[in-house]
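Wed. Picked up where I left off yesterday with Cullin associated and neddylation dissociated 2 (putative). The coffee machine is broken again, so keeping this brief.
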Amino acid sequence: MGQFTHRAPESLGPLVGKVKEYQVETIVDTLCTNMLSDKEQLRDISSIGLKTVIAELPPASTGSTMTANVCKKITAQLTGAIGKQEDVSVQLEALDILSDMLSRLGGTLYSFHSSILNCLLPQLTSPRLAVRKRAIIALGHLVLTCSGSIFSELTEHLLTELKRNESTSTTRTYIQCVAGISRQAGHRIGEHLEKIIPLIVQYCNVEDDELREYCFQAFESFVRRCPKEMDPHIPNVMGLCLKYITFDPNYNYDNEEEEEMMDTENGEDEEQESDDEYSDDDDISWKVRRSAAKCLEAIVSSRHDLLQDFYRTLSPVLISRFKEREENVKADIFSAYISLLKQTLPTQSWLPTSDAPGKDDIPLTMLRNQVPNIVKALHKQLKEKSIKSRQGCFSLLTELANVLPGCLADHIPALIPGVVFSLADKSSSSNMRIDTLSFLHVLLCNHQPEVFHPHIKSLLPPVVTCIGDPFYKITSEALLVTQQLVKVIRPLDKSCAFDAKPYVKDLFPGTLKRLKAADIDQEVKERAISCMGQIIYSLGDHLSTDLQPTLKIFLERLKNEITRLTTVKALTLIASSPLKIDLRPILGEGFPILASFLRKNQRALKLSTLTALDVLVKNYSDSLKPAMIESVLVELPALITENDMHVSQVAIVFLTTLAQVYPSCVSKLSGSVLAEIFQLVHSPLLQGGALSAIMDFFQALLLTKTATTGYSELMRQLTAPIHSSGSAGESVTLHKQAYYSVAKCVAALSSACPKEAAAVVTQFIQDVKSPKSSPAVKVLAFLSLAEMGRTMNLSAQRELKTVILEAFTSPSEEVKSAASYALGNISVGNLQEYLPFMLKEIGSQPKRQYLLLHSLKEVISSSPANSLKPYVEDIWALLFKHCECPEEGTRNVVAECLGKLTLVNPSELLPRLKKQLSSDSPHARSTVVTAVKFTIADQPQPVDALLRGCIGDFLKTLQDPDLNVRRVALAMFNSAAHNKPSLIRDLLDAVLPSLYNETKVRRELIREVEMGPFKHTVDDGLDVRKAAFECMYTLLESCLDRLDIYEYLNHVEDGLKDHYDIRMLTFLMLARLSTLCPGAVLQRLETLIEPLRATCSTKVKAGSVKQEFEKQDELKRSAMRAVAALLTIPEVEKSPAMAEFSSQIRSNPEMASLFESIQKDSASLPASESMDMS
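Structure written out below (tokens, as returned):
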């Protein structure tokens, strides 16, 4: 029977989906009646049955009426049962089911909300605490979906009751209820905080520890849920937390000295004694301290902007409480301090740190001054019995060493005994050892080797013992630490007096045993290989007869698919050791294995193998036989392809090494490898590192003096596709990028063979002059002259100037721009001859001005500052003449020239730009602002300090009356926020109102244009709005901590309803915001979801053009991506609007398939990203 009764309610679930609606209602009726029965078993079964039914009901959005009807039936019965108050267990079950129903189907019960509220409120004064607790949970689910008026009714009731303060017991319940509501629906309680907080503050001072605990829990939930509304109350709440975190009325901490005496006398029974002597079973003051610590952690983690205050007031108090006697409280105090350290971690490591020695470093300095106190408070605890508090100490110290590398250098002697104790102590748990080892690893990585040398003797043995530990996780951590210890014992990059030899006998056998073992965890295998690699690299000369057998093991590991990658990396390390380890015994067999890896379909393995081969060829050239080299050469052509530029680059770098070390092998490799390389040069994708690798390789080839790869042969193959395209037969059209690549290679070859260069220059000039030459040939000739002219003086070529100026009138745009590029770069090679000539031409030839200004831009960008200095005044005067040019293209080039010229002598020229801001001509103002944009670079440079002083003046143009000036001001602001945030971080308060102002749609800028029979609206303000939203997006990445995120979200909400381009941008912003500040987004979900829903459900008018369909598709995809991002926010499922929307997505086939494809995309993303990292 028992078995059957347990299965019965479960089978109701599937039944609900199958039977008719009225039957479900009958089932529910029966269950409800049975719930009120006297028989306990029947009651239990019925309540399980009801929960099952509720879980199976279809969501309201599917349009089924059944759910609504069933819910109404149940609700009426439940509220009745709760109100009757006869049997507590019935009440508890009923409250439980009601909570279940409200959390899943709250919206459906809309008409019942007020009766549910009236039924729940009296339960808050129930004599049974369990009933109160469940009533609070049910209210929490109710506030998610109830209307504003019901929510206000509830808060009013709570406020009245809190003011009445009938008994401490009910006051506790009401405070718990407020906290519960705030946890569930923080965004709604925000507006009532003004009234609530003073009441709770007042109850903190009542002598009742449980009440205080609930007060702090309420504060904590306010801080996390309503950060904006809590802002004015933070100082007050923080003061209370700091007061009560030290609240321990039954214990006397003053006798620190005596305590130490006790420690030494009776270490064993010390714990028990203190328990009997001090602790009353009813002392619950620790709960107050714990809730205060948790509240502090919430404040610290949400208020990055108050860091300095935290270090002034909060940090010393927390440090003084590290001595807390209650383990659970201590854990929370540690956790609050770790939170503080995490906030201090210099954010965004990708921004240059030298960038801003301003505000952001003060907290670090304050922390540095408190390190001695932290160590003093912790180092004794590292030897305490309690594992939990030791783990807490190590987590805190680990975080500290990460935030301030090197800060523990003076305290190593105080910390090492504790580390050794935790590693050697028999009672330490596995996790305790792992935590200790990982702290030691961070410590070794972040401090100078010398500080550890006095302690190696005591540190090494326990670490080596851990290598032998049977638990693989401990072994694996210990191997990591040992690898780091080896670097510390003998740092090869500097001279060191410490003698490492005596320690080899400790280190080597333990690691070797793990290296030999075949039946161990994969991670241990890999770390044993890496650790042994480090030992051989650093201590190989002390291993004598052990060295060769160990290398043989490496050879075995190289043959195993699972360990080969790690072994390749370890061998690379060993081969680069300054100790010149003798690898001859394994090279004969190892080299062909490495060669075979180049065929494998594992990208990381190819790359690591190429690096290994490169090091081996450089350092072991005399031990390699020609046959070994050939086995590798065969594999290389397949690796050089435009499909993977990085692998190609590494392969070409290796070829260059081969050409330098074994010139004789070049004759064997010419054919296929060269063909692949030329194909790469002609590829549109070639740039950067791979291109310079090819140029180096060509130069190395020429130096081998091999007949088949001489200068003229290489030149012929380089330029062949361009020259052949002129003949009528075949036309090979190359991408524009390829011309630049070929020209750069031509220049590289010519600089390696200066004897040939003159003839080639003459040939190029003939190409340009000849009327038979195709535009392609002319373009290549000009670009090659440019690349050569930059480094050599071409003034011997008399007719060069006229040839270039003639080309300025060519019908082909490509030829014109190549000629202008050439003039600029040739001038760089010979300023005194060409620059005055160029300036004269700009002044006298208005028709060619644009091209000549482009040449000037090349000169300014590529010449060293000192050589430009004599000409600055002339250039400046000339540019200023043109800064009011009506043609925007010309103005932009002038602005770029002005900006880059300013960098030559910033202290003199930047003020001149600033003066120009007051010009009456909007054109002139926009030119100056754009010029400033070109002075901002992502690398530190001398102009920064000056810019910091005056960028505020340039940003005032965000309020310029002229639309275009405002647009370029936004572009300049965006560039600063992206490349050098420190320039603008402190100005944001002044700048943001102007920025937000530009996100608004301006009716007066929208006009109607008649195009034949149609009227077409044009919005002149669109570009400015777009620029403003782009700035907002950039600020998310670089200045998030300086933004009032709620104000920011207001403007994002507007953007979600704007023009296509802007909606696309705001969808991206929303996705970023979901990860960066999920709490704020959660509060605003209701208003954010509406525009997303609207976008996802729009239909394109039938008969629209194809572009319109594509545009809408793109919009929907982008909106769906934002929805997918919103769904990753923790606790988002509690929002009724979101639940409603996601069920709408699921039930609409078109939206559902779109959503699935987005999820697939995002699932495949991280994988491909992580691959590229390798």
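Quick read: Strands lie at 1006-1011, 1014-1019.
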